[in-house]
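U., I forgot to send this yesterday:
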Amino acid sequence: MLIKTFYRVLLFLLLIQGIVFAEIKIFLFPIVEIDGIDITLKDVGMIDYNSTIHKKIEDIEIFRELYMDGYLDRMELRNLLNRNIKEDIIIFGNAVRILTKDDDSDKQKKYEREWRDYIVTKGDRVNLIVKGNGITIGSSGMAVNDGKIGDEIKVKLKGSKVVRGRLTKGRLVEVTQ
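Result:
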C-alpha cells in the first residue's frame, strides 16, 4: 500500500512539474477591447516570468490575422510564441475575445453576424427545460435543426424521443406543456 501511494505521489509530481517549473506563465484575459490594430502579448494576458528572462516578451506583437475571427485562442498564441521564445511556456485559459472599437473589417463583421444568426446548429448539445403545472424539469438533448434566439427547434432526447421547444438564451430550450 505504501509503495502504491509513493508511486501515485511521484506520478503527480511529474505531471505538475511542467506547471510549477515553467519559465513563462501566461494567464489569458477573457475579453479585451482594443482601439487600434496593434496589440501585444501584455494586452491579452497577465505574464508571469522569472527575472532572468528579459521584459521584451511583453512586447511581442500579435498579428491581426490571428484574431480576425474575434478570438485569439491558445494554439494560435502558442504557435506565435514558439517562433519567438525558447523557454517553457504554460498558457492558462482557452481563448481571448478581442473586440475592436472602430472595426470596419468586413471579415470580423461577417463572423459576428454568423455568430448572432445561429446560436445553435444541428447536432449541438442543448439544455432543455420542461415547464408545466408549476413544475420545472431540466434535461439535455441534441438539436435536430439550427436555430437562433426565439426560434422553435426540435430536440432529440436520450431515448430517441423528439420534442419541440423555443430557444431562449444561449443553448437553453424551453418546452411548455
